[in-house]
Amino acid sequence: MSELTESVTRMIKEFEKLPGVGKKSAERIAYYLLKVEKKEALALADAIYGVKENVRYCKHCFNLTEQELCEICRDPNRNQTTLCVVEQPRDLIALEQTGRYNGLYHILLGRIAPLDKIGPDQLTIAALVERIKTGSFTEIVMATNPTIEGDSTALYIIKQLESVPVFPKITRLARGITTGSDLQFANKEMLADALAERQSFR
Amino acid sequence: MSELTESVTRMIKEFEKLPGVGKKSAERIAYYLLKVEKKEALALADAIYGVKENVRYCKHCFNLTEQELCEICRDPNRNQTTLCVVEQPRDLIALEQTGRYNGLYHILLGRIAPLDKIGPDQLTIAALVERIKTGSFTEIVMATNPTIEGDSTALYIIKQLESVPVFPKITRLARGITTGSDLQFANKEMLADALAERQSFR
Lengths: 202, 202
Fold this sequence. Notes:
The structure is a homodimer.
Chain A (H helix, E strand, L loop, with lengths): L5 H11 L6 H13 L2 H17 L1 E2 L6 E2 L5 H4 L7 E5 L2 H10 L5 E4 L17 H10 L4 E4 L5 H13 L8 E4 L15 H9 L6
Helix pairs in contact in A: 1-2
């Protein structure tokens, strides 16, 4: 690849680091950026700068924000007594898109994953415990991912909350078969959950 | 998506413009860039700046370069009497990777494509004709893509060369079946080319 200039080679290498971008895609993107107007290519570079300069974590809930508090924490119409604990900002977005939750959130910024060397200290669990201790939440919805790591993280957090004087109700998202799915394709765990948590027919 | 900040939304939009990057991939890249160290994310932005600030087209052949002339044009060991005409810098790279060509190149920066509103004037054809007129090339290898547009572009160029006093030999890349392929999967055009241009068995 000595025929590509140093700058282009460097740019391709940087693009290759992105998730889902392989060597070929990175090259294709490089040719595209070489071709487009300087203004257009620099708009991408500036957007990256914009994010890294302006975006930070909400002081309360660790959601993404460009101010001290995020949109949700600033909204006085949100139910201040319910707190939903999620792993990542994208989980918050998914829940918000349902339009069925009006409480507050707490983003852990990950899950406890010993294999990836991620312990409780690298998450925002201490801040969460403090928030619950000093706040007046009546319900904590544990919405970590329905995986072994997500469940373990939720259990770890519940353990930490034992010292909280006024213990709030702790719930988790319902598990079962998914709307629109087909029983024959459901796996054992899914069906076991669905049976164990069966609901009264309305 | 009001839960993502303005900067993040803007960055996702910019990534979506890249070839092969859809909405989901752009979001995934955005979460990645939010997570990594500021230094690492800005390295990508700076690499894009680097390319748009430093990379230009070679004054002779329109290859990419960070100097006035590209590596190949600067190399005195290249055969100065053979000129290979390609559509894009990436075609030059593909040919260079074979290690079987030692002449010079001319990059058209595209092909004549009326449907895409690309006419001869948007390519480097005038510069190519001038180069052949004033140079001492004995062979011009037309290595435009083996497509209708690539072939038409080559024919157009040959037509323009009629005014050149000392007319060089004009060749094109051999067409036929591809090494390692299977006859049953070859299409009609491929087999017709292979039959018409059949070579003596060595």
